[in-house]
Specification:
This protein has 16 helices and 16 strands. It is of the alpha/beta class. The chain has 3 domains: about 70 residues, no CATH class; about 110 residues, Pdz3 Domain, CATH 2.30.42.10; about 160 residues, 2-enoyl-CoA Hydratase, Chain A, domain 1 (Alpha-Beta Complex). A 6-stranded mixed β-sheet has the order 9-10-11-12-13-16, covered by helices on one side. A 4-stranded antiparallel β-sheet has the order 5-4-6-7. Strands 1-15-14 form a 3-stranded antiparallel β-sheet.
């Protein structure tokens, strides 16, 4: 009896000590973040009062004993978001590799649709269906709760980033939408039939290995290659030079700012640029399209140079296609095409602000190994502080158009 009691006391002491050690490690990480992030950031307190930042971290320290590691990380993310810089965040494999509900989502004009599922028994039931609610909570309310983990500067950033976050069990639990491993999801088909389906959360690796994607009847011309860094095509019938710029990078950018290994894997922008100018010199071009709707940014100088050269070589119609994924340097390059080419902006508002923080660097928290990203510069390109770059002509993609392989932006440009 005495021996059993001794082991029991040792067990309690050990558990208490582990809890204290864990809290101490987290406090060390929080202390480092509290000191280093404002010091390294270009202007961390531009939109965030210093007392509020310290108070939020003090509140987190108090709550540490009752929080799991993933909840601490999400709480840190929520606190950092209040600084209003979408380039500044905390990232950890603990959260990003956590359990998910087996859905891949996209926000169309009509709402949120399932474009991927992995449950063998339900994938045919779910693909192409609209998600209406989770555990009886309308998806608009779920999105509003989850948006506090984003720098929700505008509607586009919510529509772009939330579909990737909403399947996360950690996120849905954190915002009080789920409280167990399973949840009831409410869907609607294209005929208006509504149904409920219970789904179990699964490991992320299991979801990825069994993922089945929705296949539309056809794909729009403009969506032919989203994996290439950039591509161009001269369309003879429309006398249009179509430029798709998916990332602000290249072999030259990687040589200058990155690594020689990555440089070998990237296409040459100089050659790409020469091909564009050659086409403008040799072909009848009535319209030029610069499409950055899927471009999350990178390095802006090469895109700015291209805009200047096109502006000097070509005096016809220019359209810049923007969307919810247009961010950071891609926004700057859109402004370059406005300035030098008189481009008409078509599509959706951008998730990136015209004036924004950038030139991101990182540091690591020593115990959790979470990565903190932060901005080292502030780019001011327009007067005031607009939350987004608005298109001159707003065109949104519907699920019906996506399913038929129709790009309403391209259809609009062809008619001009």
């Amino acid at each position: 009896m005495k021996l059993t009691l001794l082991f029991f006391c040792l067990f309690l002491f050990s558990g208490s000590a582990c809890g204290q050690d864990r809290a101490a490690r987290w406090e060390e990480d929080i202390d480092l973040l509290e000191t280093e992030l404002p010091k390294r950031h270009n202007d961390f307190y531009r939109h965030y009062s210093e007392p509020d930042f310290h108070s939020a971290l003090d509140s987190l320290r108090t709550a540490l004993p009752g929080l799991e590691d993933w909840a601490v990380l999400l709480r840190l993310q929520e606190i950092i978001c209040r600084a209003g810089d979408s380039h500044t965040s905390v990232f950890s494999d603990v959260v990003s590799n956590g359990p998910v509900f087996p859905l891949s989502l996209y926000w169309f004009k009509e709402g949120l649709f399932v474009l991927g599922a992995s449950a063998v028994s339900s994938q045919d039931t779910l693909l192409g269906k609209q998600l209406l609610a989770i555990n009886g909570i309308p998806i608009e309310e779920v999105a509003a709760r989850a948006a506090r983990l984003l720098v929700a500067e505008n509607e586009s950033i919510v529509r772009h980033r939330l579909p990737n976050l909403l399947p996360s069990w950690y996120l849905l639990s954190y915002v009080g939408v789920v409280d167990g491993a399973s949840a009831i999801f409410t869907f609607q088909d294209t005929n208006g039939y509504t149904f409920n389906l219970p789904l179990e959360s699964v490991p992320l690796a299991s979801f990825k290995s069994a993922l089945v994607r929705y296949k539309p009847a056809s794909y729009a011309f403009s969506e032919r290659d989203n994996r290439s860094v950039f591509w161009r095509e001269y369309l003879e019938e429309e006398q249009c030079l179509y430029i798709r710029y998916n990332r602000c990078t290249s072999r030259e950018v990687e040589k200058k700012y990155g690594s020689k290994k990555r440089a070998k894997q990237q296409p040459s922008f100089e050659n790409f640029e020469k091909g564009i100018l050659s086409t403008l010199a040799e072909k009848p071009v009535h319209k030029l399209v610069f499409d950055v709707r899927n471009n999350p940014g990178g390095s802006s100088p090469q895109g700015a140079r291209l805009a200047r050269q096109i502006g000097q070589a070509y005096k016809g119609k220019v359209y810049a296609v923007i969307g919810r994924r247009t961010f950071s340097s891609a926004v700057l390059n859109t402004l370059d095409f406005q300035e030098h080419c008189g481009a008409t902006l078509v599509g959706e508002p951008t998730s990136g602000r015209p004036n924004h923080f950038g030139e991101v660097k990182t540091f690591e928290l020593p115990n959790s190994k979470a990565t903190v990203s932060y901005s080292t510069q502030y780019f001011k390109r327009v007067e005031g502080d607009p939350a987004t770059l608005e298109p001159d002509v707003r065109v949104e993609l519907s699920f019906n158009e996506f399913n038929r392989g129709v790009d309403p932006v391209w259809e609009y440009i062809k008619r001009q």
